[in-house]
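From the shared-data thread, chain only:
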Amino acid sequence: MSPRRSVADTLATRQRILDRSLAIASAEGLEGLTIGRLAAELGMSKAGLLGHFGTKEALQLAVVDQAAEVFQREVPRKVKQMPSGLTRLRAVTEAWVSYLERNVLPGGCFFTAATAEFDGRSGPVRDALAGMNALWRRDLRIHIRRAVRDDELPRDTDVDQLVYEILGVMLALNHFLQLEHDPAAPRRARQALARLLTK
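Structure, as tokens:
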């Protein structure tokens, strides 16, 4: 086997582990990831699986990164060509609703579940989750400030309050989709966002 083929196979195996791990973690939490379970489901040895990550914590951190990549692909990157300001902000929130509505991950919003799981803890996984959430809030603030600057939202808009309320709508949407299985939840979320994002 050529070295190039060997590297490609290793990367493909690592990606298969991450894809399965993210599916499990989105539904059962990061602590639901056990090396034994993953190895059995993927037809691998425990040692072979651990060889890709080293420790369970390293696997959890890789899953956080994988979840961020999926979210980036499904939400911000989908609307990156939209004009900045309110148009982009509305497009971002619509892509976010669609992401949850389409059940891209079997357990809904990975970050909602993982944050609830780790918010009272300390350590690298909690720090990674907090960092991802902080980056996303920063991006929302940028969109809101541009909308205010362009006179698309009121000049006295409290940026942090609006971020808080948008996040609240999305948390509620995830709750009503996952726990209540409420088919009206996406419509309600869109109505709430439309009220928030109107001058």
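Residues 27 and 132 are 19 Å apart (CA to CA).
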